């Protein structure tokens, strides 16, 4: 198990670690190029959290590296080797987007986190994200000012847990807020195969 450590101004953290995050102005928000929507509906106890399946496409596709930087594809082959398809509980590192201001409302993010737990208990904890660039590689949840998404950056389908996504949402939102000179952030897997982003809608 990896212990939380401040690495050159970047916070490396274990999924449920509780510590303060550091914003870095070198980290920009990942923008999904030429997003193509496949399906959308509403989830949660009150059916008020929008869920969308989509993919990122087009020229100049890029991904988020393990260091939290948006880098162009293709990656060196060694960085594209796959691991087990189920990535529940996998460690990721959190990077915040600076500067302060314009981030999501934490209360709105908590509504999403609660909806994820509700679906975990009622639909099941697992969900699949299809291979990078295919129809449901990006799974987005939105409630008012808060948007969070899981993006599969790997060439194979991944299975992730709604309960883990819920925890990441409630971790990133308050640790990458204005008080931390940030406006949202992301947690990218150590092996770069996926990340979860929390941002303003
Ligand atoms: C995910 O995909 C696998 C393999 O295709 C399938 O067996 C499994 O039922 C899917 N899980 C969910 C939650 O859809």
Describe the structure.
This protein is an alpha+beta fold and 201 residues long. It has helices at 106-122, 162-175, and strands spanning 5-7, 10-12, 23-24, 36-43, 49-55, 62-64, 70-72, 92-97, 126-129, 138-143, 146-152, 158-161, 185-189, 194-200. It has an eight-stranded mixed beta sheet with strand order 3-8-13-14-11-10-5-4, with helices on one face. Strands 1-2 form a two-stranded antiparallel ribbon. Strands 6-7 form a two-stranded antiparallel ribbon. α1 (106-122) runs antiparallel to α2 (162-175). It starts with a strand and ends with a strand. Mean pLDDT is 83; it is low at 1-26. Bound molecules: 2-acetamido-2-deoxy-beta-D-glucopyranose. The site of 2-acetamido-2-deoxy-beta-D-glucopyranose (NAG) has 5 residues, from β9.
Which strands sit side by side, in order, in the main sheet?
3-8-13-14-11-10-5-4
Q: How large is the radius of gyration?
A: 15 Å
Distance between the termini: 33 Å
Element-by-element helix/strand order:
EEEEEEEEHEEEEHEE
Beta content comes to 25-35%
Global geometry: globular
The tally of helices reads: 2
Mean pLDDT: 83
């Amino acid at each position: 198990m990896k212990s939380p450590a401040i690495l050159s101004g970047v916070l490396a953290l274990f999924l449920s670690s509780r510590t303060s995050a550091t914003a870095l102005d070198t980290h920009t928000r990942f923008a999904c190029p030429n997003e193509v929507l496949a399906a959308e509906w509403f989830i949660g106890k009150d059916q008020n959290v929008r869920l969308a399946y989509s993919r990122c496409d087009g020229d100049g596709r890029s991904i988020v590296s393990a260091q939290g930087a948006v880098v162009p594809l293709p990656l060196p082959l060694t960085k594209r080797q796959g691991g087990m398809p189920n990535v529940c509980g996998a460690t990721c590192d959190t990077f915040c987007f600076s500067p302060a201001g314009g981030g999501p409302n934490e209360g709105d993010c908590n509504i999403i986190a609660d909806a994820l737990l509700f679906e975990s208990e009622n639909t099941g904890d697992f969900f699949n994200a299809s291979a990078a660039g295919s129809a449901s590689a990006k799974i987005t949840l939105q409630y008012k000012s808060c948007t969070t998404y899981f993006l599969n950056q790997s060439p194979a389908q991944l299975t992730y847990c709604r309960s883990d996504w819920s925890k990441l949402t409630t971790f990133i939102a308050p640790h990458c807020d204005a008080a931390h000179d940030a406006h949202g952030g992301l947690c990218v897997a150590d092996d770069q195969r996926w990340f979860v982003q929390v941002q303003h809608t």
